[in-house]
Amino acid sequence: MAEGSMHAGNPQRPPVFRFAPSPNGPLHLGHALSAILNHDMAKAAGGRFLLRIEDIDVTRCTPAFEQAVYDDLAWLGLHWETPVRRQSDHIAHYRSALDRLIGMGLAYPAFMTRGEVKAAVAAAEANGAVWPRDPDGAPLYPPADRKLDEPTRASRIAAGNRHAWRLDMAKAVSIAGDGLNWQESGDGETGTIVADAGAWGDVVLWRSDAPSSYHLSVVLDDALQGVTHVVRGLDLFHATAVHRLLQRLLDLPEPLYHHHRLILDGDGRKLSKSEGSTGIAELRGKGFTPSDVRRLVGIVTD
User: Fold this and answer.
1) Is 187 exposed, middle or buried, given 0-12, 13-18 or 19+ CB atoms closer than 10 A?
2) pLDDT (tens digit, 0 to 9) for every residue of the chain, 302 residues total?
3) Which one, out of 13, 79, 139, 280, has a CA that is 20 to 30 A from the CA of 174?
């Protein structure tokens, strides 16, 4: 296998790897790279390979796309354990964790719409302010909702005001304490990485248009499934800081991390599911073989 290996993990139990796609479009070469790496690294380590369907976004995720995930991965020659965990079957578990964070005083209802956030940021910048942004370049959520008193929050919720739930990052970082980091063996920085969760501001824990959020559900799923090795794209490298923070707050185990290189398009951008020419099913239809796909994503086998 051309990619680097990870630490052996806990010698008392076999390592557990997972591939966790969202069934909201056809899988592409970037997904193929991640799935194959997880599968092959699990096999090389004598571990387990799990498939998880991250289908919380019910407006975009469909049964047809989910079946396509199974078809594409099977065609690639990958084998996973069953039953497959589907996030939509475990909403109550995520809600319980959210309620725990609310009870700790670490989550608050956020009422501002995307348009209101955009307007607030634009107004501040027009007046010469430098608005802080997260590692992905998105502006941090304004502090107004965090400062609302409890009666006002309760009144707005009772009135049916649409809201998300956000993490009070400053409080969360304070409670988590020092020494937050993770062990990394991927294609970027390696070794012990300092987890700067504060750079993300008050991240969403529970969305107004869908239950839970990626940050909350992914750490809960990984813990419940006993995942020991998280292998995923470099686009999620910095988000690991948020995941490590939530793991500490919720008393969850810490996996090892390996953030692999991304497959980019002709313009140097990360592939998207709308790019049909790189879709696994599209390539299969053109006569490509699983070995061809491995070569396309740079995985050389003997």
Assistant:
1) middle
2) 344 445 444 457 899 999 999 999 999 999 999 999 999 999 999 999 999 999 998 888 999 999 999 999 999 999 999 999 999 999 999 999 999 999 999 999 999 999 999 999 999 999 999 999 999 999 999 999 999 999 999 999 999 999 999 999 999 999 999 999 999 999 999 999 999 999 999 999 999 888 899 999 999 999 999 999 999 999 999 999 999 999 999 999 999 999 999 998 876 778 876 655 589 999 999 999 999 999 999 997 65
3) 139
In what order do the strands lie in the sheet containing 107-110? 107-110, 164-167, 204-206
| Token duo for residue 97 | 């964790």
DSSP output for 7-18:
----TTS--EEE
Cβ proximity of 40 and 6 under 8 Å: no
Residue 258 bridge partners (DSSP): 231
E-assigned strand segments in 111-254:
164-167, 181-184, 191-194, 204-206, 229-233
Q: Measuring CA to CA, which residue among 285, 284, 273, 283 is closest to residue 23?
A: 273
Tokens, residue 299: 């995985």
Q: What is the pTM of this model?
A: 0.92
